Amino acid sequence: MSDQSLKRVDLIFGEYSNVKYKILADTLARTNDAILKDILDSGLRGRGGAGFPTAMKWKYTAETTSEEKYVICNADEGEPGTFKDREILLRVPRKVFSGMAICGKVIGSKKGYMYLRGEYRFMLNDLNRELDIYHEHAKKLGFDFTIEIRLGSGAYICGEESALFESMEGGRGEPRNKPPYPTTSGFMKKPTVINNVETFVNVMMIMRLGPDQYKKLGTTDSRGSKVFSVSGDTPIPGIYELELGMPLDRFVDEFGDGDTKAVQVGGASGFCVPRKKFKDTVIGFEGVPTGGSMMIFNSSRSMYNVLHNYLEFFQEESCGQCTPCRVGCQQLLKGIVAVKKGEKKAAYLDQLMKLSESMKITAKCGLGQSVANSFSSIVNNFKEEMIY
Amino acid sequence: MAECSELIKELANKYGRERSSLLPILQGVVERQNFLSDTCMTDIAKELDLSAAQVFGTATFYSFLDTEPRGKFVIRVCKTITCDMHGKKTIIQTLEDMLKIKVGETTPNKKFTLLETNCLGWCHEGPAMLINEIPFSGLTTEKIHDIISDYITK
Ligand SMILES: Cc1cc2nc3c(=O)[nH]c(=O)nc-3n(C[C@H](O)[C@H](O)[C@H](O)COP(=O)(O)O)c2cc1C
Ligand code: SF4
Ligand code: FES
After folding, report:
1. Are B106 and B144 members of one domain?
2. Entry pTM
3. Same domain, B104 and B133
4. A299 in reach of chain B (CB within 8 A)
5. Chain A residue whose CA is closest to B65
6. Could you tell me which of A273, A253, A270, A249 has the C-alpha nearest to residue A262?
7. Is the CB of A315 under 6 A from ligand 1?
8. Is B86 found in the same domain as B146?
9. Which of A17, A122, A179, B132 is deepest in the core (most CB within 10 A)?
10. B140 shares a domain with B85
11. Is B129 touching ligand 3 by the criterion CB < 6 Å?
12. ipTM of this complex > 0.90?
């Protein structure tokens, strides 16, 4: 059982040096190839949700020739149930800035931005003060990479990378068509690396520990540790750094209130796992992936209300640019209300399920494509609650 | 608004006159004047050499860029799932009773606006709300009484 249990880790928030920006200084003395190789060997995958291999993203951007390139830290953290990036930025902002700077070195960029959600405006002054310290150190090291913070203004969709670029360019936060990908055409149509806050911190962890030690954490498909945001029906809500690849039943044993009915893994755009599947569900890229959001529901909760809340969220946050998502979100919401009221037969749920499946294929971006995740996992597993 | 064009010049000097300066400028106006008036948006368009439609289009996209008059203190209560489960309805009710307005409204003295918003990133301490940019979490009826009584005197 030992490797089945939850392993708590304290690397992301842990202080590891009294000397400010020491690991950054050490890393800047290394070659780009050596840095990239370490990140590649570590198996690091992006912590923003999609799990793209970080080394490949950096490598493709490094290989694209351009006078200007950008490094962007995605701090738009808007997924319901996620609050880990806030905690990271409050507690270890230097690790984030260092990770961005190293990315700048590797891809050949002189300019980094952090896109901070408007809801986190209260941190801005402290972060800017920290940035002054970073810039002093960068100057001392003779390293030309500056970082600027841009604020969002209350739009979940701006966490989607191409919507984020549009927003930073002064437009509506409407996702672009892909390809082209950010590695060739991102912010200002220039090659851009965009990574989640936690991803940059993981890079620093790898720089400090080396890939071999880093790899000892987690499983083959999900290397390293992960910061989880635990909320809902739990006696101990909060932020926990755990190894990836853990079985969900162990998680529930530790964090549930003894009466856990379901866990929503990965936020409103993630999956709802019912009690009977806890045992066979692994949290990680090989099982159910998560950007960190773990919302626990006990048996007093109506899963109809949960789904209703998610659908309202999507309907409000859809950018409205493409029809499948704009109309689809409205229809799913109206549909479950009608079934609940008895205005539509229970079989109507199957039609709604088909609608959500077609949104998965036809919607332009991840928002519309992922509505089906929570929709079908809740409707399938809690059908009676949708009807009665 | 005469002071609007002054403010816009000041913000444009600070953030630049590129298209990419638009969001920081819009945010700066909302911070100082609580909302974006039509004249103000037209002035921004002129200052940045954009069409008014471009400025309106961007402004209306973002839920924090209010284009209707708002109070000095904008209260945004999280209505997403964990806050909802942990008593958001009572919090809204308490605020409505204290301020004598409904969600979406502004007090007659233009001091408070009450709105709902989506997840604020304080789910582990829900219910949560923002008053302008300041977050408050772990809300209870008593806490709301204390917080609002304090803001009433500001
Ligand atoms: C609707 C939507 C919202 C997103 N929000 C965020 C976010 O808040 N933070 C984030 O890091 N990634 C978010 N993403 C994922 C980003 O598009 C992008 O994949 C990520 O920033 C890449 O970083 P990573 O490789 O380090 O994970 C979102 C994606 C979608 C479709
Ligand atoms: S899927 Fe939804 S959020 Fe994405 S582009 Fe289409 S309408 Fe906008
Ligand atoms: S659900 Fe309210 S802060 Fe996240």
Report:
1. yes
2. 0.97
3. yes
4. no
5. A153
6. A273
7. no
8. yes
9. B132
10. yes
11. no
12. yes
CB neighbour list of residue B21: distance below 8 Å, 6 or more residues apart: A170, B12, B15, B48
* pLDDT tens per residue across all 388 residues of chain A: 334 456 778 888 887 777 789 999 999 999 999 999 999 999 999 999 888 999 999 999 999 999 999 999 999 999 999 999 999 999 999 999 999 999 999 999 999 999 999 999 999 999 999 999 999 999 999 999 999 999 999 999 999 999 999 999 999 999 999 999 999 999 999 999 999 999 999 999 999 999 999 988 887 778 888 999 999 999 999 999 998 888 999 999 999 999 999 999 999 999 999 999 999 999 988 888 888 999 999 999 999 999 999 999 999 999 999 999 999 999 999 999 999 999 999 999 999 999 999 999 999 999 999 999 999 999 999 999 999 9
CA A130 from centre of chain: 23
Return the residue whose CA atom lies nearest to atom 18 of ligand 1.
Answer: A161
Residue A171 and residue B57: Cβ atoms within 8 Å? yes
> Which chain A residues are within 8 Å of B123, Cβ to Cβ?
80-83, 229, 231-232, 237, 295
DSSP calls for A30-91 = S-HHHHHHHHHHHT-B-SSSS--BHHHHHHHHHHS--S--EEEEEE---STT--HHHHHHHH
Looking at the DSSP bridge assignments, the partners of residue B37 are none
- Do the chains contact at B118 and A86, CB–CB below 8 Å? no
Instruction: State how far the Cα of A268 lies from the Cα of B72, in Å rounded to an integer.
Output: 32
Counting every residue, how long is chain A?
Answer: 388
Q: Are residues B41 and B90 both part of a single domain? A: no
**Residue A201 DSSP class:** H
Domains of chain A in sequence order = 22-215 (3.40.50.11540), 225-298 (3.10.20.600), 303-382 (1.20.1440.230)
Which residue out of B23, B44, B55, B113 would a mutagenesis test of the A interface target, given it has the greatest number of A Cβ atoms within 10 Å? B23
